[in-house]
Amino acid sequence: MNTNLRLPSPYTPAALSALVGKFGSPLFVIDCDVIRRQYRALAEALPGVDLHYALKPLPDRTVVKVLAREGSWFDLATNGEVDLVRKAGIPPERCIHTHPIKRDADIRHTLDYGVTTFVVDNPDEVDKFVAYRDRVQLLLRLSFRSPEAVVDLSRKFGCDTDAALELARRAARARIRVAGLSFHVGSQVARPDMYVQAIETCAGLIAEGRRGLGPFEILDIGGGFPIDYLEPVAPIAEFCAPIRAALARLPEKIRVIAEPGRFICGPAAIGLATVMGRAKRDGRWWYYLDDGLYGTFSGQLYDHSRFPVEPVLPHGGERQHCVVAGPTCDSIDVVSEDIMLPELEIGDLVVARQIGAYTIATATDFNFFPRARVLAVNVARGG
Ligand SMILES: *Cc1c(COP(=O)(O)O)cnc(C)c1O
């Protein structure tokens, strides 16, 4: 929900309590000022790179509109994402479709909106575009394994360099335009080395491909840019410095694009949940929240993230080892097995930070505990 609410950050405890008083608990609050701040920080760290927000980690219409006003482009992967940007009034020229595996109906749905750039990583997928060859251009997705990334996205998708050239030949034979290359080194990447290596490998492939296989004028360096969770990471300008240097060594006339998701939306949301009950078990307090692993904290399962959790209004008292659990009857639904918190009471509010990416997007209403209500604040620029 878009509230027209201005909520200067850092939020005060009183402001957070008032939000829950008005909109209920659990709540998922997106701060559009932070969306803008993150977009601008990455744009500054990667000058000349067209940032395509990947909708997957937080497919939210307000976020899309706020980013559009910043000049963002968009990375779509499914029909639902196509429909979302379409309803938000985003021109299709600002979007690319990057799912390497698509049904014909998905391709048609995307073409019907007007998006014409698609990603392929295997021969069958190239063949799916023969019928649309006069309306599409392809990016070939390379795989570069990042065993250190929290989420390795080159295991499931992407091909090696030899296979990429083979795909380019196949596309050329079918008279389908090969616009360039793409890769995704993984999500929440620890170090920039893999981007540098991938950019260098792609430079070689681009040179080869340009000898008759297609224009090879786009290089898509994917997403993966990391944010602070419990462990801080390098500031984004520093993280991107070697990537900037590698991009500067590319031949002229290459349009470089990126597909950031987590970096833009991760820090922009907080989760607010309420203590529903508590029990002392084996000498430790267990606190049961109205949101948990099947809800906003689902990122802890699917995305392997851990979110900082704090009481909104600490009563004081010493911090002690305790357990924070979600509301469902399932024993796996534990947010933290061991966290130091002051003693909490029933009705107390708890805030989780850095919880914008891969969280509400993967939440369920298992056991009929409804997903957190989504609020966007600071939607208008400035103030
Ligand atoms: C998930 C995904 C992204 C976003 O990755 P982040 O690590 O969140 O930046 C970008 N591109 C593709 C193809 C993806 O699947």
Secondary-structure blueprint of this entry?
Layout: E1 2-5, H1 13-23, E2 27-31, H2 32-45, E3 50-54, H3 61-70, E4 73-76, H4 79-87, E5 95-97, H5 104-113, E6 117-120, H6 123-127, E7 137-142, H7 161-173, E8 177-183, H8 193-209, E9 218-220, H9 236-248, E10 255-258, H10 262-265, E11 269-281, E12 284-289, H11 299-302, E13 309-311, E14 320-325, E15 334-341, E16 349-352, E17 373-377
Parallel strand pairs: 1-17, 2-17, 3-4, 3-10, 4-5, 6-7, 7-8, 8-9, 9-10, 12-14
Antiparallel strand pairs: 2-11, 11-12, 11-16, 13-16, 14-15
The chain binds pyridoxal-5'-phosphate.
Describe this structure as you would to a colleague.
It contains eleven helices and 17 strands. By secondary structure, the protein is α/β, with parallel strands linked by helices. The longest helix has 17 residues, at 193-209. The model has no long low-confidence stretch (mean pLDDT 95). The protein binds pyridoxal-5'-phosphate. Residues 54, 56-57, 75, 98, 153, 184, 187, 222-225, 259-263, 357 line the site of pyridoxal-5'-phosphate (PLP).
Order of helices and strands: EHEHEHEHEHEHEHEHEHEHEEHEEEEE
Tell me the CATH topology of the largest domain: TIM Barrel
The low-confidence parts are: none
CATH superfamily descriptor of the largest domain: Alanine racemase
Backbone CA Rg: 22 Å
Query: Helices and strands: which structural class?
Result: alpha/beta
Do you know the CATH architecture of the largest domain? Alpha-Beta Barrel
Q: What gross morphology would you assign?
A: elongated
Work out the helicity level: 25-40%
Which whole number gives the mean pLDDT?
95
CATH C-level class of the largest domain is: Alpha Beta
Number of H/I helices? 11
